[in-house]
Specification:
alpha+beta, Aminopeptidase, 21% strand, binds coenzyme A, GNAT_dom, NatB_acetyltransferase_subunit
Length: 130
């Protein structure tokens, strides 16, 4: 593994100190970085401070082949600057143009009202409740 990838991984884990951000084990992040690096993106401030990240994957069979947003988060001090909007746009672009996915989906907890409002504003609609 390259040094930069270690740093990247560490940043992901540190950022997950935010209670609203889904947290996974190290193996989970390594799997994403090795399989779908182009669906993972970080936004850094000029001095290298991490502002936010998105991690995603491509999955499904035949007409169900699609991009999936696994986690997206923006540090509290950088919110409402359209960072999440830009990262979602990038993930959608890569999902469409590189992976040829037919759609993009995601799960969001019912109590994450800000995130739900954001996704709806981006054109996402409720498919099912589990
Ligand atoms: C949800 C989250 C990623 C949004 O990040 P962000 O960079 O602030 O979002 P953006 O600035 O790109 O906002 C995009 C749109 O989302 C909506 N939105 C974002 N934050 C909002 C808030 N606090 N209240 C209401 N709407 C909000 C708005 O419609 C906004 O568009 P606008 O600024 O033109 O009105 C961020 O609040 C976050 O990291 N939350 C904790 C982790 C989380 O819940 N992740 C989602 C898990 S599924």
């Amino acid at each position: 593994m390259l040094k930069d990838e270690y740093a990247y991984l560490l940043c992901l884990v540190l950022r997950n100190l935010d209670i609203w951000t889904e947290t996974y084990n190290i193996g989970f992040y390594l799997h994403y970085l090795s399989r779908w690096l182009d669906l993972c993106c970080v936004q850094e401030a000029p001095r290298g401070r991490m502002m936010g990240y998105v991690i995603g994957k491509a999955e499904g069979q035949a007409v169900e082949w699609h991009g999936h947003v696994t986690a997206i988060t923006v540090a509290a001090e950088y919110r409402r600057l359209s960072l999440a909007w830009r990262m979602m746009n990038l993930l959608e672009l890569v999902s469409n143009d590189i992976y040829r996915g037919f759609f993009v989906d995601l799960f969001v907890r019912c109590n994450k009202l800000v995130a739900i409002e954001m996704y709806e504003g981006m054109g996402y609609s409720l498919y099912r409740r589990v």
